Amino acid sequence: MLASHVAMHIPDGFLSTAVAVVFWVISVIVIGYALKRVSQELGERQVPLMGVLAAAIFAGQMLNFTVAGGTSGHLLGAAIATILLGPWPAILVLTSVVSIQALIFQDGGLLALGANLFNMAVVGVAVSYMVYRTIYRLAGGKNWGIFVGGFVAAWLSIEIAALSCALQLAISGTSPANISVPAMGGIHALIGIGEGLITVGALAFIYSTRRDLLTHGESAATQGKLVWVVGLLLAIGLAILSPLASAYPDGLEWVAEQHGFLEAAKGPFYTIIPDYVFPGISNQALATIIAGIFGTLLVFAVALGVGYWRHRRTHA
Amino acid sequence: MHIHFLDPYHPLPSLIHSLDARVKLILVVGFILTTSLMPVGVWAGYLILYALLISAEILSEVSLRYYFSRALFSIPFILAALPLPFTTHGRVLAQFQLDGLTLVISAEGLARLISVALKSWISVQAAILLAVSTTFPDILLAMRAVGVPRLLVAVFGLMWRYLFVFADEALRLMRARAARSSEVDGYRSGRSLTWRAKLTGGMAGSLFLRGFERADRVYLAMVARGYDGEVRSLPLPAWKKTNTVVVVLGLFLYLLILIMGSFIHSIG
């Protein structure tokens, strides 16, 4: 279960500090706004509903089915959460799922959490909502709108979120765009089909047992104009930007390089003693050796201390 | 079978466990930030950071093997950075001919790949340290203390409370499916891929439906206990002077390590 969805959860170390911080800021703003909307517009029943459904989605990600050769498909849940709850509560539900995965299960990093929240809770929900509402409206309230809308929303939300993830890695200079974009996009085009099928299966089950849950969303729909527009912009923007970035990696490399310069320029900020040479530490190799010796001594001392303390405790 | 083993918290009477959760959250996030800011290729910096972390892991009295085996889960993501040695320009280390395609491994690219791998390995263990030594209610409390809105913390808390209930339900659903899908040698079981996926979807749908119904009951139980739509929480426990000392010392140490790292980087 833990290893199955690493594909989209970026661990720490893979994003440059600047990229991680920028996406933290964006996600905090969006989630803060979602919190405001939820507490203004929705009833007091929403708090337990969001908590319990977040748990259900987390558990729903454990359900899998064999595809071929040991691989399996499973659910990420942005689309189904959006369809069942409406966009603003869905952002909060996905925020809970992704945050707990990072905090407790180390599925995705803590510094990278801002970017992961952006991809799954913001991009995933906004794109799902835009697609589902559009197709549902086009169907004029007919049933096929629910299922086609659900499938396309699930597939596209996974695909666009994956492209966003690939671009973040590319801007960080971790993975060149002409490799990461086709790789992430290709893998998730397939994963998205599994997501779409499970979403349709879930919708079909809910449609046959509790149809009211799928049609009561009308009132929530009117609140979602902003999400619809943002979803459309994100989908179009990322769908155009990614192939471009992948065809002309130089452009993104340029961004990464500028960014590299920025990181390098930041160097002097905390280089307090720039031209002073520590006595004895004149090169990297020596510094590494000293660090190694110092580190080993530290670890050894702590281990001894803990051993001694345990010994005393058991004999006390 | 119950799923409680999922919770990584180890109840132990160690020094790390007895630290205030707020202190741990600040120091762990600060540590990961420090690791992230450490320039590429400063091996001495990574060594010191890792030595610090291993020391804290030993102090937590949880076996090091546990840290390593959990950290292994994040290894597959390194695939994303594997092209780095081939695509970064720099001093040529090695050159391959592959069907007329020339692959060049650069020293700079290799250094970046190893740096990414080390940073990831160190950071994930810092996050594990927080999870094994802090109970979830304490983590919620620390989140509130650093300014996460109360409503969101309430949703986190409710999610955690029902996570294991739903994980158990998911396991039961899967067991039921396994019990009804017999396999006979020579016969294909489980029909087409679409069928299998839709079946799984039905299971997910039933899980969500149970979620809705449980949420109704939870809401009624909350109302019966005086819930009026306002999320309330207990006041935060007092902040001790020693907490300030530990946080300031820790952050100062990180700053020192960063200065050392950028110094080595500039002379390297």
In helices, the fraction of residues of chain A equals over 70%
Overall pLDDT level of chain B: 88
- Going across the biggest sheet of chain A, name each strand in turn: 1-2
Radius of gyration of chain B: 25 Å
Helix content of chain B: 55-70%
Continuous helix count of chain B: 10
- How many separate domains of chain A? 2
Largest interface: A-B, 112 and 115 residues
Beta-strand proportion of chain B: under 5%
How many DSSP-defined strands of chain B? Answer: 2
Q: What is the CATH class name of the largest domain in chain A?
A: Mainly Alpha
> Uncertain regions of chain B: pLDDT < 50 for 5+ in a row?
none
Order of helices and strands of chain A: HHEEHHHHHHHHHH
Count the beta strands of chain A.
Answer: 2
**Total of domains of chain B:** 2
- CATH fold descriptor of the largest domain in chain A: Arp2/3 complex 21 kDa subunit ARPC3
Task: Assign an overall shape of chain A.
Answer: globular
Summary?
The complex is a heterodimer of chains A (316) and B (268). Chain A has 316 residues and is an all-alpha fold.
Spell out the key features of this protein:
heterodimer, A: 316 residues, mainly alpha, Arp2/3 complex 21 kDa subunit ARPC3, 2 domains, two-stranded antiparallel sheet, 2 strands, 76% helix, B: 268 residues, 10 helices, 66% helix
